[in-house]
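Journal club prep — side note

Before the paper discussion, L.F. wants everyone to see what a predicted structure for a comparable chain looks like in token form. Sequence:
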Amino acid sequence: MKVRGLMNNKLCLLALSILMAMSFAACSDDDNSQLNDNGSKVDLPESRVYILNEGTKGQNNAGIAFYDPNKKVATLNDIFYKQNSSKLGDTGQDIITYKNNIYVSVNGSNYITMLNSAGVLQKSLYLSASGDNELTGGVRYLAAEDGYIYASLYGGVVLKINANTLTIDSKIKGLGNNLEGVTICNHELYVANSYKVENGKYIYLTDVFVIDLSSFKLKKTLTVTQNPNQLVTENGKVFLISWDYSSESYVLQMIDPSNDYNVSKLGYATNMAAGAADNTLYLIDSRTDYSNWPVTSTVNSFSTYNINNKEIIKTSFLKNAPSELTNTSISTIKINPENGDIYIATTYYSTANGNIYRFKKDGTFIEKFDCGGQNPNGVAFFN
């Protein structure tokens, strides 16, 4: 009797353990997929890719396309319009996801919008209508950390915005001139100060500002190659592309915060991406000749930078890529952080919609599809 009772107790404990494990697993799955689809007019799968199409300046034709990598739902050319019955605006600049929301900066219309995970409008921050003349220069790029969205603006302003309420918490003004790319590394915000215009002449600048996010004050100003633009973070390093028109191509640099913010030149690239958790920076050098505009000619090369070995590997990271990808202007590259899939966007400027080329992490070509709008320049993921 005692043996049988003991066995029954053990079986009960085992069953209870299994049920608890199943319960924890279910809770974990729910925690990882708390997508907010309230108000959605379409049923969407859990895996979602949102593509920001910049459109053509002054044409009010920016948009956001939806793509399902698992092919359960057909691609939607403009999910923003589908969900909200209104256009996104003029010149879509940047798109990020943060805490299951989507944040988009629209430069020409000069506002930031917050969408839920289905692309349904939640809130908008209209900067030109804010009554603050220092915010009229035009919003550019976004980054997020610890409940805040950080935005760069033309006119030398950086904003700290509450991610939930989309209200401005504080701002730094008089910080350079026309600010471009932003990235966060080790609780510091890096901001590119690209150029200014004096007497109708472009003057290219050489600053990257480092802002301590604890105090939201300028910590350091770094000197880099002129006209700094794109910034990304990977493995505790900050990578920068400067649009130096006097050089043979755009200049790739690395900033090492652990080595007194040393800036070193690595080579040339027009686009870069990180996020595959493989110590690799993916590089594209898309050299386009605009001298016969609107007719252009382009030559593309694809390479990687091994961050640990500090080595550029010139062998292409792509396999069986369509031949046209070698000579079509490329507007952006993004990596899906969940599985390492590579998304490369090409542009036909104002003449046609762009295309997206999707590859596996190992570079194997998956497919090409129309991105639904002109000048695709951003990709955001929910997995």
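L.F.'s comment for the group: The two ends are 53 Å apart (CA to CA). Keep this in mind when we get to the figures.
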